[in-house]
Please model this.
Amino acid sequence: MAAPLICIDSRYVRRRPSGIGEVVRALIDHAPALAPDVRFLLLKHPDTQARLSAAPNVTERVVRAAANGPATMWWLARATDLTGVDLFHAPANIQPAGLAMPVVTTIHDVMWLTHPHWAARPGWRGRVDRAFYAHGIRRALRASPRIATVSAATRDAIATIDPRAADRMRITRSGVAPAFHPPAAGVVSPRGERRYVLTVGQAAPYKNHRAALDAFAVAFADRNDVDHVFVQRQGAGAAALLAQAAALGLTGRVQVMTAVGRDELIALYGHALALCHPSLIEGFGNPLAEAMACGCPVVTSDVSAMPEVTGGAALLAGPCDVPAIAAALRRVADEPRLAAMLRERGLRRAAELSWHAFAAANVAIYREVLGR
Model:
């Protein structure tokens, strides 16, 4: 009997960083070794020149269609030959139509169904985005024999929207890479002597960066020894944030970085006063795990997946409660014992978030669907 062939859509792994890209990268790093009796076909993005995996049970194929575009949604079987594939893993929220094999879909969050305005672009493009993602997610809820979710929060949200999907859901909690670790003794901060609050994430409404900056202003307007650094890895929101900073009297104390490599990001986490992450919703929230692994105290929201991911290692506040967020930031800055406790708890919590365990949970789903 031939070894089963599992196709993992890996096109989110590319030069442009993204949270889903990190998830897929971790999956393909670990799954082939965890399932040596399985063959894997990885669909890859054209700008990914190097091989995605050196495992002997992996083959790779470039697909030029966008990972979350019309060709993938409706005509993927025409865009690439999937003959012989026994199971397809769609890791980016939408289930492609017309596939002959069973499809496992990873749904990171259901924002496109519950609060699409938090994610959509403005204007007609936003209206297209809303219809597109809602269609693909609802197909997954209806037709995927198994639905993977990266947090219990997303699982519970899906069960509320579509109770019929409850029995088909499995949690595959995200992890954090070993590369994220505290700075070695004596390593100089990338910001020199300046203390700073760090906020990481794309420039989308649900990331709530305006509230993060408002809270920073309330906490530190009277202290010019603290700056606010934003790493907006996927957005063009710098102009809006800098205009907001000017209106708040913070000109020169707010920096927006859009092109940050992993090593620089790790250094920023490791020397930050705190990560301020007041998202309105998260499927998981990679910056939370990354910051904790780097020994960075975390101030985040008390909703969605944030309390689950931080596991008692963060200060929590309502994402729209600017005074509460500001008070938490000020406490971290002014209470060294609290900051040290948050660092210690964060490191312990991050050690529990394993990409190996994440991949193993996905492999268990594959075997369940294949009946092996």
Summary: The two ends are 12 Å apart (CA to CA). The domain at 195-351 is CATH 3.40.50.2000 (Rossmann fold). The longest helix spans residues 123-143. The chain has two domains: 5-175+354-370, 195-351.
